[in-house]
Give the backbone structure.
Amino acid sequence: MYASREDIGYDFGDDSKAGSKPIKPNANIDGGWAWMIVLSSFFVHILIMGSQMALGILNMEWLEEFNQSRGLTAWVSSLSMGITLIVGPFIGLFISMCGCRKTAIIGGILNALGWILSAYASNVHYLFLTFGVTAGIGSGMVYLPAVVMVGQYFQKRRALAQGLSTTGTGFGAFLMTALLKYLCTEFGWRNTMFIQGAISLNLCVCGALMRPLAPKSVCEKYVVRNNGEDNQAKALSHSAETIKSNGVLSEEPEKKEESTNEEVLDGVQHTEIGGRSRSGRNMYGLRILKTVSQLTVTVKKGFALWYSSYFGAASLFTNRVFVAFVIWALFAYSSFVIPFIHLPEIVKQYNLSSQNNIFPLTSIIAIVHIFGKVILGIISDLPCISTWNVFLTANFTLVTCILTLPLMRTYVSLAVVCALIGFSSGYFSLMPVVTEDLVGTKHLANAYGIIICANGISALLGPPFAGWIYDITQKYDFSFYISGLLYMVGIIFLLIQPCILKRQPREKSTEEAQV
């Protein structure tokens, strides 16, 4: 529910350095175009996370088409979901160099390409590459910029904005389940992949809406007033804009590097001016040299920012509580994903397809999940309630539902358990708050990136593991029992930490209190 400034790597603080201009208030902060960013992020969650939650429909089609084991077929869905989260830290490198808008547009094209190429699949292994890897990487390239941009555009209403945008996951799971089921019935699964690929091109539209936030203001902050040379000003502007595209402003140690970059670009520009009197071939070569030099500077600076942001967090693993939290994340997310992938097949085995077609169980999870995020967030914001206690209670409820789901044999009982799964899984909205309590505001961004990556590994391995257990036992019961027990092990790792047990209700920071 809360997102600190470090969570997005953007500093809104004033710079008191001599000779620099202050940043003027931007009308789009907490208003104006900021709400278009929320709308864009909302549709990204629908098209990416919602589609992934509805892959159980396609999983059934792939089982019938290729006649492979459930464990092998489940790898297609889990690869797509897992890679989307796992590549998150590495997508930061693209954001550092290209900015959120270009990264999201490229990701939208890659995601649509993955869907379309999957229509030509001749076997499951082909789907691993086209749908699992290609579409998964494309999804990750759109998902991370969508989250980052909302954080950049909001200060006072950041919690509300993030909450509204992430509800797209629940809406998307409900809408995409119905859409994929209809398309598969009417046109077959191959044509469905074509249509869904065309729909996914709307991710490029969402990416185009991710307009950078006031690049001129950021440049003005770092351009020295007494600098009158146009070439040097352009070089500084280019470097500042590159840094800004990732939402991170450079610190003092980078000033020397900026000066070196300015000299390189300035020298290339002077060389180009002298080359105007030469032949056209030499002029063309100088332009190529200039472009390569600029690209080298951009890549070098972007890589430095990316490396310091993600690999500078190694000290976090000296925190025993955080290590326990990472272990919990490795087991937790799979217990939420497994029902989405395997429930349609379970319903078919129980001869409940007619009732499930009227109102799918996965849609029940998706709808209640929306309310769970909002209600649990409101409860945890109460001054007399500990966020950690709400988080633990929701986890215990979810693991109980996972363990009892195989015992339910009627549609009504399954619907009740699925509703509880959807509501209790709303604790995902509390994960940034809990992470901040564990590691502090300074390390929140890096720590949360590691947690998301651990969730991706869980989503990657969970569904295939459940399918593999079914292939051995010919029942899904043991899949839910084992995943539930592993989930319980992760919760126990959290409980055995004495400092967590003594944690008091979370107090608002001075900044949040002012907001």
About this structure: Residues 395 and 424 are 7 Å apart (CA to CA).
